[in-house]
């Protein structure tokens, strides 16, 4: 398939959450869409200021309110970025589908280019995983099951024993009181080390701008790599065609 034919097919093709990419140009479009969904620089920079306000808020109630607002902003930021990185790693798996060719039929130059593309994908995944791991330590901290409440319920049951007594007997019935004790335990999942969790949150707030830029630069570099591979593929096809046209 020629480049002109591929470009003609790419025009008018919808790429979104419901339509996965199946060609390299489509994969590039999808990556660019994910870049546009990242939180803005201003939103990311606000995490650091919100974290600082939470520690310097006036009064106990003011500080608690600031910490709650800053914590909610950080959690939302983490969820958005985590979802985008998951989509990005999923999209990269389509590169192998878009570039598949039976190895004996692949020219040597394109084989080298494909190896370079695979190396770039591995490097890209490793860099984005750095951010993913930091986010996971905040959204999914280590939990432990702990007893938080214990209730003891005491109840008394009275039973009357009138066996083996004549009907006209005036003696009182014998009664037995039985006490029953029921224990109810309530367990909850508690963060194992709240201090470490707080440290991780503060660190991510301080580094959020750098982490966002790392994700943006990595995705943009991946788009450039896809373009470079496409150019190399076209050049190898033209090179191969030139040799075939010289055959007698």
Task: Report what the structure shows.
By secondary structure, this protein is an alpha+beta fold. Residues 1-9, 56-60 and 242-248 have low confidence and may be disordered. 65% of the residues lie in helices and 15% in strands. The chain is elongated and about 110 Å long.
Helix count equals 7
Summarize the biggest pleated sheet: 2 strands, antiparallel
Q: Could you tell me the mean pLDDT? A: 81
Kindly name the structural category: alpha+beta
Form type: elongated
Content of β-strand: 5-15%
Report how far the terminal alpha carbons are from each other. Answer: 25 Å
- Helical content band: 55-70%
Uncertain runs are: 1-9, 56-60, 242-248
- Regarding quaternary structure, how should these chains be classified? single chain
Kindly report the spatial arrangement of strands forming the biggest sheet: 1-2
Radius of gyration: 33 Å
Q: What is the tally of beta strands?
A: 2
Give short descriptive properties of this protein.
alpha+beta, 2 strands, disordered C terminus
What's a quick, concise take on this entry?
It is built from seven helices and two strands. It is of the alpha+beta class and 248 residues long.
Task: Give the arrangement of secondary structure elements.
Layout: H1 3-10, H2 24-37, H3 41-56, H4 59-92, H5 94-98, H6 108-139, E1 143-161, E2 174-191, H7 194-245
Antiparallel strand pairs: 1-2
Helix pairs in contact: 2-4, 2-7, 3-4, 3-7, 4-6, 4-7, 6-7
């Amino acid at each position: 398939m020629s480049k002109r034919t591929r470009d003609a097919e790419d025009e008018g093709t919808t790429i979104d959450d419901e339509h996965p990419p199946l060609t390299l140009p489509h994969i590039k479009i999808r990556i660019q869409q994910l870049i546009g969904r990242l939180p803005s620089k201003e939103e990311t920079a606000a995490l650091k200021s919100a974290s600082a306000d939470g520690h310097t808020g006036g009064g106990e109630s003011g500080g608690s309110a600031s910490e709650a607002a800053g914590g909610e902003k950080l959690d939302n930021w983490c969820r958005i970025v985590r979802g985008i990185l998951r989509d990005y790693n999923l999209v990269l798996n389509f590169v192998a589908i878009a570039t598949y060719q039976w190895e004996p039929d692949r020219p040597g130059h394109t084989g080298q280019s494909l190896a370079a593309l695979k190396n770039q994908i591995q490097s890209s995944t490793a860099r984005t995983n750095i951010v993913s791991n930091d986010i996971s330590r905040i959204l999914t901290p280590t939990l432990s099951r702990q007893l938080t409440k214990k209730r003891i319920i005491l109840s008394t049951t009275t039973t009357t024993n009138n066996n083996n007594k004549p009907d006209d007997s005036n003696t009182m019935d014998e009664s037995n009181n039985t006490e029953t004790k029921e224990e109810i335990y309530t367990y909850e999942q508690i963060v194992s080390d709240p201090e470490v969790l707080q440290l991780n949150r503060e660190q991510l707030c301080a580094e959020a701008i750098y982490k966002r830029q790392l994700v943006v630069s990595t995705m943009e570099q991946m788009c450039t790599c896809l373009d470079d591979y496409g150019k190399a593929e076209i050049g190898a096809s033209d090179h191969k065609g030139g040799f075939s046209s010289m055959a007698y």
